[in-house]
Write a structure and sequence with these properties.
This protein is mainly α and 51 residues long. It has one domain. The protein is 80% helix and 0% strand. The protein is built from 2 helices and no strands. Helix 1 packs antiparallel against helix 2. The longest helix is centred in the middle third of the chain and has 27 residues. The protein starts with a helix and ends with a helix.
Length: 51
């Protein structure tokens, strides 16, 4: 699922059920963490790529 889709889904669920807010925030943090991680990996592989 694309990042944007999951965020849209998360905000829809948030509107429907305010009690799910903590869960949604954890999912959001996790997605953000994963994105940052993959960015770091891309940059790292660029750094260590043989010339």
């Amino acid at each position: 699922m694309a990042y944007h889709d999951s965020m849209t889904l998360a905000s829809k669920q948030l509107e429907n059920k305010p009690d799910n807010e903590a869960k949604i925030m954890r999912i959001y943090q996790f997605i953000k963490f994963k994105l940052l991680q993959s960015e770091d990996n891309k940059q790292a592989s660029n750094l260590y790529r043989p010339l």
